[in-house]
Amino acid sequence: MSETAIDVAVSIEDEGWSEALPGAVELCRTMAAAALQEGAGELDGPAVEISIVLTDDAQVQELNRDWRGQDKPTNVLSFAALDDLDAPPAPIGAPILLGDVVLALETCRREADEQGKSLAHHTAHLVVHGVLHLLGWDHEEDEVEANEMERLETKVLAAFGIADPYAQAEGERR
């Protein structure tokens, strides 16, 4: 994917993100690009586009209820455009639209506090996790793929000095 341009659009729908995490837009762009570089494998084209939305628990709960049948907020949701088999093919040379990653501020902040992490590090992890989902990685159906996805996440985060999010307190992985 070295020849592919990466466009990451970040939208802040809850201004609490700006207050809680100054530099959130740049953090999201950086982590998304790193995840794309590491996890894309054979994805090739002139350009790749994704959208990251920083919003609140209420919006994520609504999306989670409407699209996943779970009426509760969650930390991150990914909506992969490549999964839409009914979408018309993109014109030749057009950017590959990967989809959207949506993060909920209150849940992300609560989890970061519970895990003793900074909001920046937790957000970085969730962006990487969400982007890997856009690329087709799945941790729910196949344990081998789940382990590989965790390895990719850990590798991307380590390049930025962020600790393994799956490490236990005693230093062992789950």
From TrEMBL:
GO terms for cellular component: cytoplasm. Binds 1 zinc ion. Pfam families: YbeY. Its EC number is 3.1.-.-. The keyword rRNA processing applies. It comes from the Bacteria. Its cofactor is Zn(2+). Zn(2+) binds at H129, H133, H139. The keyword NAD does not apply. It is found in: Cytoplasm. Signal peptide: none annotated. GO terms for molecular function: metalloendopeptidase activity; RNA endonuclease activity; zinc ion binding. It is an enzyme of class 3 (hydrolase). Coiled coil: none annotated. Keywords: Cytoplasm, Endonuclease, Hydrolase, Metal-binding, Nuclease, Ribosome biogenesis, rRNA processing, Zinc. InterPro entries: MetalPrtase_cat_dom_sf_prd, YbeY, YbeY_CS. GO terms for biological process: rRNA processing. HAMAP family: Endoribonucl_YbeY. Belongs to the endoribonuclease YbeY family. Single strand-specific metallo-endoribonuclease involved in late-stage 70S ribosome quality control and in maturation of the 3' terminus of the 16S rRNA. This is Endoribonuclease YbeY. It comes from Magnetospirillum moscoviense.
